[in-house]
Amino acid sequence: MTAITSHRSKGRPRTFDRAQALHSALEVFWKRGYEPATMGELCSAMGINPPSLYAAFGNKASLFMEAVEHYETTYWAAPWRLLDEEPNLRVAVGRFMTEAAAVLTSLDAPCGCMVVLGTANVSPEAQDVHDALRALREVSRTNFRKRFERALDAGDLPLGTDVATLASTFNTLLQGLSVQARDGAARAELERIAEASLALLPHAGSGAPADGRGRP
Amino acid sequence: MTAITSHRSKGRPRTFDRAQALHSALEVFWKRGYEPATMGELCSAMGINPPSLYAAFGNKASLFMEAVEHYETTYWAAPWRLLDEEPNLRVAVGRFMTEAAAVLTSLDAPCGCMVVLGTANVSPEAQDVHDALRALREVSRTNFRKRFERALDAGDLPLGTDVATLASTFNTLLQGLSVQARDGAARAELERIAEASLALLPHAGSGAPADGRGRP
DNA sequence: CGATTATTGTAACGGGCGTTACTGACGTTA
DNA sequence: TAACGTCAGTAACGCCCGTTACAATAATCG
Q: Does A199 contact B198 at a Cβ distance shorter than 8 Å?
């Protein structure tokens, strides 16, 4: 057999495509979650044996983290850019949430978001991985908040809008969509929820509610 | 030692309080989730040894399901009744979501909802438990939907309101709150999100949006 | 061509999991 | 009091987990 990637160093070259193996690992982790995914299952899906896996990726935790990076850039970089670049706030949020609904139902099996559900309940030994994913979830809220702050400056949100809470609310809804997707919700249903979420955005021009309560 | 519960049958009576042991098991399952909670940890918390546990509760799965029943009646029966009995829709929803925020942060450790996160990612062997909890999550949405249908009849929601999607949206938000709580969000923050969620309720009198889109 | 270096497949390692024999202790019944 | 039935504690079972020796193989370097 010949090497798939050209090697400059000495030694026997690996006979599998590292990037392709990583993508296979991603699918397993996505469907099963971090701890339920076994090394045997990963090896089968990647088409390699344990020593090859450990030589190429370190151990289970580092393989998972690399898979998460791959997941983020492959599936979520574009939606977040869309939220950022679309000038109309409501269009931006609506499209982002609709894209999210598509991503969360993109695999055949019920999946949801790997970052939200991947380490939803893990044993204490996996605390490191759990914390790393929590940091990524925090990034999601920050993305929302920055977008809403810009909208506030642009006059697309009423003065006095609590953008922090608004961002938390959308982030909460986004994470809830993962649970729905994992439970087998159809993409169309997630899209309806995505549309309904736009009602959370207060309209500029209407006075901003001081305490968030509606008129009784 | 004397028996704690009076026995009418023959044989040596058990020396521990079954209900109290169940509550201890609930706390462990709540904090850790179904599979990460080990029998050793459960036995320690319950103050008994494996044979006593198996004699009293069957096995891990049946102990978990019984703990879930106990959890539902102890923590969620009252909030759901509140949603059902409070006549004013917005007050009902607002109070329910606020109560939910309190429940989801009621334990010292980060917890979230046991039904939402308890079997978030499990190995295929625990499919039965996973399915049972999914059915319970479905009940949650049904509760919302019935309440909104009543509100529609009472004129508290505009004619033509998509109550099914509205119920799904609140259910999604509720499940997202569990992820937030598990990530260590403070109760006050969950309460702010709970208040913000009221914006999802369309006001009666304003025309119901035919397609859910806001005015551009 | 040897020497070196990395990868490969097989097979196994220690450890922790859920679960259960087994033996002794205890309270009820006859 | 003697027989019976259930519970308690110790210790172990089989299984599967993530991980790794080990020897064979295949490429590059001198």
A: no
